[in-house]
Design a protein that fits this description.
Length: 129
């Protein structure tokens, strides 16, 4: 386990919290590293809830995290669809405000990846559209 603390801005917490619990559950369920969690496993949803509470508190103490909790945290970033939701379907933004929202989301995903890596978490994929 890691001994570092990750501090989040309100927007970073919102960005991570956007990942639906069912999507996180599916990702962990399909991960060969966690065969103890079955498809209908309520315990995994409880662990996801614990991680989401930490995200919402904006202070994540990795010393208190198990490996599956760390995996859930990383999944909240790597599986994020925030950038994709903001990217324009036809390739052009409707307004400067929309373009700024997308640029902010992309920057946030990259900053979160940097924070996670600095805390010792393995982040391979960073979404940006």
């Amino acid at each position: 386990m890691n001994t570092k603390t990750i501090t989040l801005t309100p927007y970073q917490a919102e960005f991570l919290d956007d990942r639906p619990d069912d999507c996180i559950h599916e990702g962990i369920y399909e991960d060969e590293n966690y065969p103890e969690y079955g498809f209908e496993d309520r315990k995994l949803y409880e662990i996801i809830h614990q991680v989401k509470v930490c995200i919402r508190s904006r202070k994540i103490n990795l010393a208190e995290f198990t490996p599956v909790m760390e995996e859930i945290l990383v999944d909240c970033l790597a599986g994020s669809t925030v950038c994709g939701q903001l990217f324009p379907f036809m390739g052009e933004f409707d307004s400067p405000k929309d373009q700024l929202a997308y640029a902010t989301a992309v920057r946030t995903s990259r900053l979160l990846a940097d924070k996670f890596r600095a805390a010792g978490l393995s982040v391979g994929f960073v979404p940006d559209a």
